[in-house]
Amino acid sequence: MTCWSGLHLLASPTDSLHFKPTHHVKPDVNRRSMSIGCHCQAILFHQNLNTMVATSDIPADTSTSLLTTLADEISSSATLLSSHIESRRLPWPSFSADGPRQPICEDNEEVSRARTALIEATRSLHALAVGPVETTKHFCFNEIYLLGAMQVLCHFEIPQNVPLQGTITFHHLASKTGLSEALLPRFLRMAIANFYFAEPEPGLVAHSAWSKPLATDEKMRACIWFRHAEMLPAVSKLVDMVKRYPDSPEPQDTAFSLAFGDAFFGYKERHPENMVQFGQFLDAFSGGSSADSAESIARAYPWETLPNRALVVDVGGGIGHISAAIAQAHPHLRFQVQDFEDLRGAAEELMESKGVKDRVEFVSHNFFDPQPEPARGAAVYFMRNILHNWSDLYCKRILKPIAESMGPESRIVNCDIVLPEPNSVPKAQDAVIRALDLTMLSLFNAKERSTDQWKELFASADGRLEITDMVGKPRMRMDSLVEVRLLC
Predict the structure, then answer these.
(1) How do the domains of the chain map onto residue ranges?
(2) How would DSSP label each residue in 261-296?
(3) Each residue's pLDDT expressed in tens, for the chain with a length of 488 residues
(4) Among 13, 146, 356, 364, which residue's beta carbon has the most beta carbons within 10 A?
(5) What's the CATH code, domain 141-216?
(6) Full-model pTM
(7) Is 432 strand, coil or helix?
């Protein structure tokens, strides 16, 4: 997370804390996962810049300075966004503690394009201003120690002990939290240099828009914890993993297992106290501006075209958040949520609270096993972020029982990332996606997949499986809905 002020204003305080993680997975194969006259000119700027930067098609010599081109793009995009904010009477993005958590609403495609263009131009301008040598010399230097400082601050509950309004002295804060008064300013000032907290006067600390969510939302604190406590140690073992297990498909042959002595969820079972924070870390992403919410999935796919009383099987559906949202939006459908038996109580409680308990049933099921008889011939077998947690070998073992249970009108709807072609998306977006791919590798020996890789995977699981439709942007944000049918 390199800190550029313009980028930080456009990327919300909560988005700065996380990216979309893996979830609903259990590496033990005998158990399965819980599983946006002037506006037209501005838009042309956005489209041209996205193409230019995304493809890196930048000439070595040009009569126009790339620095001024990017600066013009920043001004143009910022003007469009400011007009949108002013016309909607929305709160202005701000570093102050009263700044909005999600500064720009993305329900308008023009606004969304402008925000993307602004982030990309800001990122590119920063890189050009710093230059390749300084970038490499200080590569990740800030990020590593920012993460360490934030972990210390969260461990000693500094965010919760800074008043939401007003200030507190370093001395008083140290005495309240037990963090050494000599060390506290060092960690805090590292955070302040990266927009977390503020020091309005020497020796006084206050919240900023970036630190305030850490005081009020335990899920945001869990983002710091998981990155530092579990992801960073795993990343440090990637070289060892690649050397020791270069071609292994096994979920226990991972960088995580080398760091912690056990596969990811085996470790979690031995340390159940960490599962609470890991669950909070996962939940944090359902509210991020880059996330595909359950409601967006209910809108993106043409569920309304399914027959009356058609059955949707939510494979590895956890406690059924997705099924509940689709059921509320499409009352003609029935649902079966499949997951661990120990999730039944929470699932039934959720369905009761959503008013859909009469159409959504929970079934204890291992997705490596044959589908239960009532689920055979279902209209849809839905999976969200299941297959990206597994190597091809295990994905085939998941898909085969589903294919065997499908009828002529059945289809699989798989909700996962589809990797973009190289140089086809802005680099800021691509960086997040590539980080997710390496997350899958380091934690689970799994991967994100391109369109061709998805095609190959489905066909290798069952030669009759073929992709028939894909729903991506703008209806989806990060993931895509991939529809797969049996074609004889």
Answers:
(1) 36-137, 141-216, 291-486
(2) SS-HHHHHHH-HHHHHHHHHHHHHGGGSTTS--HHH
(3) 333 344 455 555 655 554 443 333 343 444 344 343 333 333 333 334 444 444 344 445 455 689 999 999 999 999 999 999 999 999 999 999 998 887 776 667 889 889 999 999 999 999 999 999 998 888 888 899 999 999 999 999 999 999 999 999 999 999 999 999 999 999 999 999 999 999 999 999 999 999 999 999 998 999 999 999 999 999 999 999 999 999 999 999 999 999 999 999 899 889 888 877 787 887 776 555 455 788 889 999 999 999 999 999 999 999 999 999 999 999 999 999 999 998 999 999 999 999 999 999 999 999 999 999 999 999 999 999 999 999 999 999 999 999 999 999 999 999 999 999 999 999 988 999 999 999 999 999 999 999 999 999 999 999 999 999 999 887 887 899 999 999 87
(4) 13
(5) 1.10.10.10
(6) 0.83
(7) helix
Let me know: does 359 contact 312? Beta carbons within 8 Å: no
CA distance 10 to 94: 10
E strand map for 65-220: 168-169, 204-205
Which of the listed CATH numbers 3.40.190.150, 3.20.20.70, 3.40.50.150, 1.10.1780.10 matches domain 291-486?
3.40.50.150
